[in-house]
């Protein structure tokens, strides 16, 4: 492409409403433009990246045997009523009416549509398993769209849905999709992790998220130093090793006026936060009597409650709900800042790590008082012990291979064993081998195509702009002339490179605006993130060389002009 | 592709609500499935065709220097209010509210969005001309969606928009798009015509429709036998040759009780309809006094009024509106069935052909009476004569090259010089060469991607199903084995063909369901329209041949098995 025939829409200023780096750089490099809240135009440069993402996704899905199709953006309410989601789905489902006042929605996802289609088209077990995908525009009416295309309202997803009669078959397709996703992210050239994820009703191994690692990620991912273990922090088991130390201090009630938080108490007693136990009161239901009850959860002051783990306990209500101050006062007789595990008239569940504490501090269930020198069993009964907390860096790996580290990730893919959630509600059956109607089970496999673009930038940028991996670059090489309007030799050599690179299947961007300043062109090329830059000037040509600059490493080198193509091919092929 | 891994969703029954052949065959061949009124799922087979259309469109648009981008489906009301179309556009514009009750619409077209974008991104005449396109989902909330994807609510269009500072530049891009569209339809392998179309305010040459010819088309297109002239019948000038014959009959008022239509009168007097003149009363405004008036339009009984031509007359209101029976009675003193041009107290405009009539019949402006033997000038004043009628087959070509024929066409593309309609309303200006703000002018260029698929089928089918042109075929060759489950030789040869064809870049569909019956497979392959069929059986293999069948011609021939690939390549290359 010649720059003179292409909309290069770089800008120096960073728009005020852009917070994260990918959003800033996508605006500054001219990949996208905001049309309205959460709605973006993809400019020609951005679309080229998007199409690269789509092409890789399509190739690997096809290779894995999935069949591409295309379902509508606008979906009838009837299907969503049948699955039950018309009522369940929140305000992100944009419900609309057509001119005849019939109800429709803009599809945030297509489980209902594909299930409706397949229950008609697939009649026999002989047609299973089958896996269908599309690359299609979705809409989620986010309350507060933000971060550019990272959390926009209209976006493009690849969504796939597989159909099966047995768990074994579902597991096989799931494993195939796991491999296909790994191949896709490998080809993108991104640092990513497949992370065991919580999917509520089915269990950990039936769902994996694919995260691109980046400091700005919204999710915390725990890794073992041995490489065996990867999980979203929501799901990572906290292993506590060692035994409880023996009690050494006397159990004492101490007046602690004004000390209401862990920090306050630790400061007052001049101890680490880990020495203070915190007691959180949440709502629950006694699983035997089915009566509502409050439940006390006890953790070390330096640990965070893991909501997902708490919700999995039989006695804790889902979603996790904290008791109000008034409810706590009514049940305990003290305010939340002075609560502790001793003598509570409600079930008490102690985190594994907290259960190993000795000589600890905790609330005395009396406003303005705490206990010091408290010890389990000696002073306070230790009942049920569970894993309640988020893991932290340095925790032992649950797989036994060293210790955990925690990095942030951006979720860009999610594979999921749905089971019969939709097929049962929508009566999607086929004839099985015995000629009987059997309900299919399903998997679904999402990949955020537009989100990948932003995530790739979050992971690959520097102060000068984007640094594209070769596979995603809108153009993989820039040809930058020095004073082309004054030198016929420079112009001719650039034209020759442009022709040769194009013929060789590279995708050059020729900065052919005759009078553009070198510094401006190089800044643009760096901002746009083109991986390889060839700078052509009279001085070099006199000795038969041009300058090559690598965007990622910053490395510069002189290369004989007839070696340039081979050099680029060796770099881009690898 | 192996049929065993592909959703072949052919069906024998024609769904009840399908009226036109393309809709029937798209359902029967398994290209699409209806999800709701005007909303279709594209099954894997159909999507393959759609992608071929898209790829050809994309290549030719790129070649013509247009830049691809992508704009949102959901558009904010503000932009449509700025252009004035929020109020003007009918119910086909689906207006919706988001969760914050802000107004949006689903885009039926993107003039507002692109103009909003370009007025910010393009600052200088140096960046012009520029032409941007997208291939994107559109929505038009048709009152009565019908004919499958031919008139659906959600559909895919390629829409392009060009920006200029001069009419010469716009004309250049328009001509480039005309050529690009011609290249696109040539590559599709469809019989089409670029037709001068009426676009209201700008004039005939500033708009062309691209029609795929098919008997089921909604538009009538007039062609000259010499090939010089092509126009939508709305725009084709009616040439009347010869002179008016001399009067031979006496002018007589005749009682014609009950004769109210041209047919009635012609039958009563035993003459052709052409001998009866009809007088239509429409609303108008006197261009000098600006007072409302009725206007009488006089045509031969065998000719049809051309609304577009009538609307172009200075005295006739647009849109064309007929006077009510009451208004006619009040103005003339007779009912519409007895109206004629004699002695009317309103402007009378006579069609060119009607002005050549002699000894004609017409209403006497007296209920139940007609004049016979009427002649212009002698009996009735002949005032203004204009071209008011649709051309008919046999009319002289306006280009002077023989006579006109009329065929039906399906409009699948439309190129259009917009002028400053949007740029002026939305204040889209750039700095011109003199450093002054100048309003851009625009062109727009639409192509109905989903519609092309249906139109191709309307033009290419027979009783057995679709007949794809090679360029649009979902698979260009079918490999059909005879009794593969009983013959290792057949299985091996088919596998070999499948491998060889794939390696050679052909797109084979291997009907590899071991026990499928030959007749069923051949019927499916014909219904799906695959252009080339290779049938492999033991008997042929014994003498080293297979059968080739051409879908379009029905021709069958035996071909040596090692000549098959070369044979296919020679056919598909041409």
From TrEMBL, chains A, B:
UniProtKB keywords: Aminoacyl-tRNA synthetase, ATP-binding, Cytoplasm, Ligase, Nucleotide-binding, Protein biosynthesis
Family that this chain belongs to: Belongs to the class-II aminoacyl-tRNA synthetase family. ProS type 1 subfamily.
Free-text comment about domains: Consists of three domains: the N-terminal catalytic domain, the editing domain and the C-terminal anticodon-binding domain.
Broad class of where this protein is predominantly found: cytoplasm
CDD domains associated with the record: ProRS-INS, ProRS_anticodon_short, ProRS_core_prok
Protein's name in the database: Proline--tRNA ligase
Domain of life: Bacteria
Physiological role: Catalyzes the attachment of proline to tRNA(Pro) in a two-step reaction: proline is first activated by ATP to form Pro-AMP and then transferred to the acceptor end of tRNA(Pro). As ProRS can inadvertently accommodate and process non-cognate amino acids such as alanine and cysteine, to avoid such errors it has two additional distinct editing activities against alanine. One activity is designated as 'pretransfer' editing and involves the tRNA(Pro)-independent hydrolysis of activated Ala-AMP.
Keyword Endoplasmic reticulum: no
InterPro entries with a match to the protein in the record: aa-tRNA-synt_IIb (IPR002314), aa-tRNA-synth_II (IPR006195), aa-tRNA-synth_II/BPL/LPL (IPR045864), Anticodon-bd (IPR004154), Anticodon-bd_dom_sf (IPR036621), Pro-tRNA-ligase_IIa (IPR002316), Pro-tRNA-synth_IIa_bac-type (IPR004500), Pro-tRNA-Synthase_IIa_type1 (IPR023717)
Enzyme nomenclature, EC number: 6.1.1.15
Annotated compartments: Cytoplasm
An example molecular function term from Gene Ontology annotations: ligase activity
Biological source species: Sessilibacter corallicola
HAMAP family, per database record: Pro_tRNA_synth_type1
Quaternary structure, from the entry: Homodimer.
First-tier enzyme category under EC: ligase
């Amino acid at each position: 492409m010649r720059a003179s025939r292409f909309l290069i829409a770089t800008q120096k200023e960073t728009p005020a409403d852009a917070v994260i780096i990918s959003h800033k750089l996508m605006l500054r490099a001219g990949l996208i433009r905001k049309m309205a809240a959460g709605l973006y135009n993809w400019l020609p440069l951005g679309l080229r990246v998007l199409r690269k993402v789509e092409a890789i996704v399509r190739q690997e899905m096809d290779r894995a045997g999935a069949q591409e199709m295309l379902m509508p953006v606008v979906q009838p309410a009837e299907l969503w009523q049948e699955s039950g989601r018309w009522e369940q789905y929140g305000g992100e489902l944009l419900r609309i009416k057509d001119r005849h006042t019939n109800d429709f929605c803009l599809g945030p996802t297509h489980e209902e549509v594909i299930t409706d289609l397949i229950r008609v088209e697939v009649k026999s077990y002989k047609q299973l398993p089958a896996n269908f995908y599309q690359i299609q525009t979705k809409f989620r009416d986010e309350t507060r769209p933000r971060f550019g295309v990272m959390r926009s309202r209209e976006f493009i997803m690849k969504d796939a849905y597989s159909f099966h009669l047995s768990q074994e078959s579902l597991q096989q397709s799931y494993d195939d999709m796991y491999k296909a996703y790994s191949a896709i992210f490998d080809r993108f050239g991104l640092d990513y992790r497949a992370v065991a994820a919580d999917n509520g009703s089915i269990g950990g191994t039936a769902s994996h998220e694919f995260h691109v690692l980046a400091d700005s990620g919204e999710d915390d991912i725990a890794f073992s130093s041995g490489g065996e273990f990867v999980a979203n922090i929501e799901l990572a088991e906290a292993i506590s090793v060692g035994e409880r130390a023996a009690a050494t201090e006397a159990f004492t009630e101490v007046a602690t006026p004004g000390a209401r938080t862990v920090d306050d108490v630790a400061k007052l007693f001049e101890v680490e936060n880990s020495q203070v136990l915190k007691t959180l009161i949440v709502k629950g239901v006694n699983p035997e009597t089915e009566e509502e009850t409050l439940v006390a959860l006890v953790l070390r002051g330096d640990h965070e409650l893991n909501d997902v783990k708490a919700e999995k306990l039989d006695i804790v209500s889902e979603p996790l709900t904290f008791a109000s101050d008034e409810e706590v006062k009514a049940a305990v007789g003290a305010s939340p800042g002075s609560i502790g595990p001793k003598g509570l008239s409600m079930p008490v569940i102690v985190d594994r790590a907290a259960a190993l504490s000795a000589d600890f501090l905790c609330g005395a269930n009396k406003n303005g008082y705490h206990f010091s020198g408290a010890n389990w069993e000696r002073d306070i009964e230790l009942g049920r012990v569970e894993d309640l907390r988020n893991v932290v860096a340095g925790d032992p790996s649950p797989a036994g291979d060293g210790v955990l580290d925690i990095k942030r990730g951006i979720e860009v893919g999610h594979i999921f064993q749905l089971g019969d959630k939709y097929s049962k509600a929508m009566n999607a059956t086929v004839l099985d081998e015995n000629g009987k109607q059997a309900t299919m089970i399903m998997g679904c496999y999402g990949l955020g195509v537009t989100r990948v673009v932003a995530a790739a930038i979050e992971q690959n940028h520097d102060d000068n702009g984007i640094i594209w991996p070769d596979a995603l670059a809108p153009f993989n090489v820039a040809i930058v002339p020095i004073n082309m309007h004054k030198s016929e030799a420079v112009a001719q050599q650039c034209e020759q490179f442009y022709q040769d690179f194009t013929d060789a299947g590279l995708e050059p961007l020729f900065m052919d605006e005759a009078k553009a300043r070198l510094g401006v062109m190089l800044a643009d090329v760096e901002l746009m993130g083109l991986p390889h830059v060839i700078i052509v000037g009279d001085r070099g040509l006199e000795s038969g060389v041009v300058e090559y600059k690598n965007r990622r490493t910053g490395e510069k080198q002189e290369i004989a002009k007839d070696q340039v193509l081979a050099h680029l091919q060796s770099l881009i092929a690898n």
